[in-house]
Amino acid sequence: MVADYGRSIWHDAIVNNSARPSRKLKIMVFVPCYNEEVYIGSVVLRSKYYTDDVVVIDDGSCDKTAEVAQLAGAHVIRHEVNKGKGAGIKNAFAYAKKADADILVLMDGDGQHNPDEIPLLIKPIISGEADIVNGSRFLVKDSHNVPKYRRFGQGVLNVLTNVVSRHKFTDSQSGFRAFSRNTFDCFSFMQTGMGIESEMLIEAARANLQVKEVQINVRYDVSGSTLNPLVHGVSVAGSIVKTLFQQNYTVTCGFCGVLLLLLGTTGFSFLAIEPYDLSRNLLIGITSVSMLSIILGILCVFTLLTTSARETGQVAGQR
Ligand SMILES: Nc1nc2c(ncn2[C@@H]2O[C@H](COP(=O)(O)OP(=O)(O)O)[C@@H](O)[C@H]2O)c(=O)[nH]1
Ligand SMILES: [Mg+2]
């Protein structure tokens, strides 16, 4: 017999919600997967308790993930080759938009998340409190069973994500999230891999979307991870920095400016130290490149300063 815990919240959230009583909401659960044949059947069946629309995105798995998911009753989207979790999530959003979903729930396919917590995630969206709900392992202090080394790595990634987004998230790497339909067009999906979790939060914060966090339970007695945690952490950290450069004109411009200034100055220093051993052509080459670097560097730093001033003015104007 299935516990009534989830269904009663579900019932409260949907049936007793006076804010949007006019039509039944279409809630779709998407499960991005790579080689999850052992767990995916249970994830799909338990999610189907809450919605008929369970979609598994099988990202070129080498095992029977797609077959098991289909047998369990999910709709399966298959990538012929492995494209990464970010690519899978991009596909999920496109599918949800086409299917006219009201709420999209993302959940991992490795059995670490509890489908009975789907109602907890969607409730703040239905009540109008949030556009996005982030299932967090660390919202309530000391209530988590996350191994210590993971907690440390997650902490570092949280700090990076929070600095870039200028927001305070307690779990930047959570794969258990819910999104209302008004967010479906808000993401760029530039990160195709695991960096997508941070990228989405950074973009949500920049778009001023209401993000609420709710405490979730994550299991660590199942296999749990596709990648080695260190490789995973370093690659996500790299992608957060990449997101910063891709999305922040000021930082990119400033970085290029400083780099060019350094290059130009180094070139001139080089000339000053050993000008006589160089051939005429090399001398002309280094001088031209150094001059150009310094001019471009000054232009970039100037642009950086004017952009910052403009942004500061805009922020001050908004207050
Ligand atoms: N679409 C897609 N999903 C992936 C890929 N690698 C892992 N996943 C899925 O992403 C979810 C989280 O991955 P996992 O390795 O467990 O991450 P961790 O729990 O944060 O260490 C699981 O459902 C995986 O099956 C991938 O290359 N593509
Ligand atoms: Mg996992």
Description:
Residues 1-6, 17-21 and 312-319 have low confidence and may be disordered. A seven-stranded mixed β-sheet has the order 3-2-1-4-6-5-7, sandwiched between helices. The longest helix has 39 residues, at 280-318. The chain contains ten helices and seven strands. It folds into two domains: 5-247, Spore Coat Polysaccharide Biosynthesis Protein SpsA, Chain A; 249-312. It is of the alpha/beta class. It starts with a helix and ends with a helix. Helices cover 50% and strands 12% of the residues. The protein has helices at residues 5-14, 40-47, 65-71, 85-98, 118-126, 148-165, 196-206, 229-247, 249-273, 280-318; strands at 27-33, 53-59, 75-79, 103-106, 132-136, 177-180, 211-215. Bound molecules: guanosine-5'-diphosphate and magnesium ion. Residues 32-34, 36, 57, 59, 82, 84-85, 88, 108-110, 112, 173, 175, 224-227, 232 line the site of guanosine-5'-diphosphate. The chain crosses the membrane at residues 249-273, 282-305. Pfam families: Glycos_transf_2.
Proportion of residues in β-strands:
5-15%
Number of strands: 7
Quote the CATH topology of the largest domain.
Answer: Spore Coat Polysaccharide Biosynthesis Protein SpsA, Chain A
Let me know the CATH homologous superfamily of the largest domain.
Spore Coat Polysaccharide Biosynthesis Protein SpsA, Chain A
What would you call the structural class?
alpha/beta
Q: Tally the structural domains.
A: 2
What order do the strands of the largest sheet run in, or round the barrel if closed? Answer: 3-2-1-4-6-5-7
Looking at the overall shape, the CATH architecture of the largest domain is Alpha-Beta Complex
Largest pleated sheet: 7 strands, mixed
Global shape:
elongated
What is the overall pLDDT average? 84
At the first level of CATH, the class of the largest domain is: Alpha Beta
Stretches where pLDDT is under 50 for at least 5 consecutive residues are 1-6, 17-21, 312-319
Q: What is the CA-CA span between the terminal residues?
A: 54 Å
Order of helices and strands: HEHEHEHEHEHEHEHHH
The percent range for helix content is 40-55%
Q: Supply the number of helical segments.
A: 10
Please compute the radius of gyration using only Cα atoms. 24 Å
Bound compounds: guanosine-5'-diphosphate, magnesium ion
Q: Assembly state here?
A: single chain
